[in-house]
């Protein structure tokens, strides 16, 4: 199990994440875990009371969680968005662009490699769920 | 053609460094081959039977002489002096060393080239009409739309781990020279109320379950173009199957869900995505389109030709196509010499084609999905001199769209997936039908060979298609008739039991004899097959 990597200023959320079914069945949970095949949109009515969404990446090849992350951020979710599971160092920059701001990788991540790869691209072609200004906007203001 | 600005350069340079770092970590044992595989694949690096294969992107098949010279240089310096032009309008090298790959990418970057997303489960190199900007029948040049999509899809953070690879094609003419509806997304630029937009077809493909893409949306205006595609991809990324790699392409999702239901899901997603402001402004389209402005044609270029050399006249009739500009023509250089390897070119030939493009085609070349090279803008007055130079280099085979203009995958000679060899069979067929008079008598006849069911050789779309299979440890070839990748798109039908390598060449000859005996005026092989059906062909082949 690797360390928790966080890119947020607030304290890590202590409450364990409950399953989506459990979350929908109890009114006071503030942390929820979404499996890769589950529909994040069912959470949209509750976003203002959720502090942590943990998105499962069961295999690094399973890319559904990237859409999950963007859907939540695009709907205005401000809480912690954590990628948990088979999360590889080369995927974290893409996940950051999809709105993830914490990572619980199963295997340890080399922090020097990660820092280099997060800093590598100065520009991005397309808009996503991060503050990066897409190249077309830089070109045309 | 498109030229990089500071942003494009910066992104490609960062990619070179990223990949160098990934290779170094692999060589140092810090990541496993399993973890490295998707990283190298997203950069076009495959581990094949004998060595690494590197696939270089040629966006929408367009390149200039400087880039073409670089491809020749890399073939000499890092490979065995040749390259292979592919059905994705790319070029691949078959004998690459892993430790050389970062240096190759660095050299490519100096001429605005890369290998980004030429493989892997991501959005692949965008393909297009090889006659774009020159074709007499086009509505507009499709390449600005394709370049817009190249940028949108490059390192797309949400769509880099799709269920399976994803291929997009953009055309803008009624004649489909790019097999548009056999792509995951096929786009035809159309006009509505004086405005250009996109007709979107989704869910086509070849492979083991061939499908023709249905129309999902008849018109998407430019202002919604990127948003709409983002919605198409998001629905696929969320709902495409991941339990079985053979059922993971979007065509299976469309098939299982139904085109109407998929379209409804896309509309719903589009409503959410459109609000995000992710569509580039029209000024960005105009900036890109300015790179594809027509070259400075000579308005006084003579429109007549001296056809007195009979060999030249044959080549003219076969390999030269109409250009929108009077006095100019589109030349297709066949990479299908009789007995050669379809799509292969030596470094010297690549250099020569680059020089000829510089001298005679406003410095532009195109790669076709049929594995030939196009010089798009040649003065008719220059054609004879051009042809002589091509002839001297073994590049003047006058067989465009004839039976020896074969599409063939690399097959068992190179590929780790193949069940049968494709190249030797292509050589045998071309040799059997080598007489150019006989080939011309047979007329347009698109023959396509795949060495396994993954269908890289487009056998489903061949007027005559051949599929190599493994039958109890022996190579066996199935014959298909009636496919087409053009605007009259259709999928071929298997004739019956398969054949040995020699047997299939005989079977093809019998099928062509049926055509010659029964054709009506003006019919191509495909037309006769469609009129008569399979029965007379089957009887001749197996009777």
TrEMBL record, chain A:
A Pfam match: DUF934
InterPro entries in alphabetical order: UCP030820
Protein's name according to its UniProt entry: Uncharacterized protein (DUF934 family)
UniProtKB/TrEMBL annotation, chain B:
Top-level enzyme category: oxidoreductase
InterPro entries for this protein: NIR_SIR_4Fe-4S, NiRdtase/SiRdtase_haem-b_fer, Nit/Sulf_reduc_fer-like_dom_sf, NO2/SO3_Rdtase_4Fe4S_dom, NO2/SO3_Rdtase_4Fe4S_sf
Keywords, alphabetical: 4Fe-4S, Heme, Iron, Iron-sulfur, Metal-binding, Oxidoreductase
Ranges for domain Nitrite/sulphite reductase 4Fe-4S: 119-271, 404-541
Domain of life: Bacteria
Entry GO MF terms: 4 iron, 4 sulfur cluster binding; heme binding; metal ion binding; sulfite reductase (NADPH) activity
Keyword Metal-binding among record annotations: yes
EC number in record: 1.8.1.2
Tagged with keyword 4Fe-4S: yes
Domain Nitrite/Sulfite reductase ferredoxin-like: 52-109, 339-392
Name of protein: Sulfite reductase (NADPH) hemoprotein beta-component
